[in-house]
Amino acid sequence: MNIQDIIAFTATERTHDWMASKRQIAAGIGNPFGVVRSSAIPWFADVTASVLLVGPGKITEDTSGFPLAI
Predict the structure, then answer these.
(1) In 8-25, which positions are buried (b, 16+ CB within 10 angstroms) versus exposed (e)?
(2) What is the mean pLDDT of the chain?
């Protein structure tokens, strides 16, 4: 699976309850000091978890969501 928009990442391993993914550190993800922005890592983890939760189906604009507890 390869998901791409402004940034891209690849799912390297996936089971029914676990997923690992990786992405290249591009120029836009770093702060002025060259360090990955603090919000990038939780965002990446959230997107990976969301893909795992949705399952093997394709995610489209009209795909129904899942319950969110805040």
Answers:
(1) ebeeeeeeeeebebeeee
(2) 75
Type of residue at 10 = T
- The answer to whether the beta carbons of residues 23 and 9 sit under 8 Å apart is yes
The dihedral sign for the CA sequence 5, 57, 11, 33: positive
Q: Output the six-digit token pair for 26.
A: 């591009």
The answer to whether residue 28 scores a pLDDT higher than 70 is: no
Considering only CA atoms, which of 70, 63, 66, 38 is closest in space to residue 50?
Answer: 66
User: Is the distance from CB of 1 to CB of 58 less than 8 angstroms?
Assistant: no
Residues 30-59 have pLDDT tens digits of 677 877 777 778 888 888 888 888 777 776
- What pLDDT is attached to residue 61? 73
